[in-house]
Amino acid sequence: MSLRVFTPPSSLEPYLRSFIMIEEPHTVFNKRIKIPDSFPVIFINFGAPFIWEMENGTVVELPRRVLVNVQTKPLNIRATGWCQAIGLTLSPWATRFFVDDHVDLAAQPVTPLGGVWHDLVTGGLPDENQIIATLRQFLCDTQHRNRFDITPFRTVLDNLYAANGRGHIHELAAESHLSTSQLERHSKYFTGLSPKTMSRLIRFDAVCAGLTEQPGYRMTDLAYQFGFVDQAHFIHEFKTFAACTPRQAAVYMRQIAADAEFLQFS
Prior knowledge:
266 residues, alpha+beta, Jelly Rolls, 41% helix
């Protein structure tokens, strides 16, 4: 099995949504569509180097340990050989626990990580217990150093996820006792994106889940269910975020589900 997807222990659920262990040939990995979503990812590479082709055509080799911020379009990342890596999917408000205040999340989609993450990659691929222990230690150390209050923005995001990304920004701000300008600043500080873009991404996540869970559902019905004006708007949103149509995305996500082994952490 090339993909092993773990549900995190309850103590880390506020920060960590899931983690995946990847072991497969680069020819398989490189064929996968990298569909963006509303979650940042810590990516730790134990295999052959990965390269990132930027929009301007520049090609760079990625460090072994990076945090990939929330993206609004696919990142063109390719493995150069045998792929052996770990992806830790974080809650979007948790990004600031892993990067410094001076990092501009809007301008820097990939941020190198050091500290405890350096020690993790000096040997071979660790097991899930080592990964969880490292993440726990990192968060424990970080929480002692940082004093920012995540509660207001986390409340906004929780409400947006509960509503599948559908909500008025001024109402979301009021529910969290923020002004709209404060919400704008919080959103850009924690994610690098505006509240409106985050809400669109969260709705996009919900639609992708719907495509996977309801394979027989008509596209027009799914578009209506998630509040799109018409099917043209629905398709445009997919091409904007994923550079593919909803049907192409559905085929890819079902293939991922078929490839993966889903495990409960114990």
